[in-house]
Write a structure and sequence with these properties.
five-stranded mixed beta sheet; alpha/beta; globular
């Protein structure tokens, strides 16, 4: 079986056509969810708009000091080559996957070749778990974490915190912890 690659990003806005990734975090696990690697990188914005409302949420104001995209792409390539094939997992993962694919196209990373199957969305799994059990249902990541009695360190809307919380929610939903 392939390794699982839990993903979270923080971006300069919500529109993949106008905005870019500012922070990317991965946790790669084996099929039993044993952590193999945790990876976080801050990416200097390139040729994109910066939405001040997004920065108020993710607090990534110091983006001028972040790592250039070409270096981040090389670092990602090194990690992905070591652990491929990977199954992508995330919270509302289509959002992060769209931004990561855009980053891949713009940096010639060739991202898709490292991943198998369609991404797994933990938010959808939580919806399925709680749909007939909880009213009203909240699918905010922090609310789901609280409902599952998961404690997390750090602030939400930080990719490192969010990806770790996604992994813990996934474990709880699959009774693997």
């Amino acid at each position: 079986m392939s390794n699982l690659c839990f993903l979270d990003t923080e971006t300069s806005g919500l529109n993949v056509n106008k905005h870019t990734i500012l922070q990317v975090s991965f946790i790669i696990t084996d099929e039993l969810l044993n952590e193999r690697l945790a990876f976080t990188q801050y990416i200097r914005p390139y040729d994109s708009e910066i939405d001040e409302d997004a920065l108020k949420i993710n607090k990534l104001y110091d983006y001028a000091s972040f790592t250039p995209p070409s270096i981040v792409a090389q670092n990602l390539k090194t990690v992905f080559e070591k652990y491929e094939p990977l199954n992508l997992v995330g919270w509302n993962v289509s959002f992060d996957w769209d931004f990561l694919r855009k980053f891949s196209r713009e940096t010639d990373l060739g991202l898709e070749r490292y991943f198998t199957y369609a991404p797994l969305d933990v938010r959808s799994m939580a919806f399925s778990e709680f749909y007939n059990k909880v009213r009203p249902i909240s699918l905010h990541q922090g609310d789901v974490g609280k409902r599952l009695d998961i404690e997390y360190n750090g602030e939400l809307h930080n990719a490192e915190t969010d990806v770790r919380l996604t992994l813990e929610i996934f474990k709880k939903l699959h009774n693997m912890k």
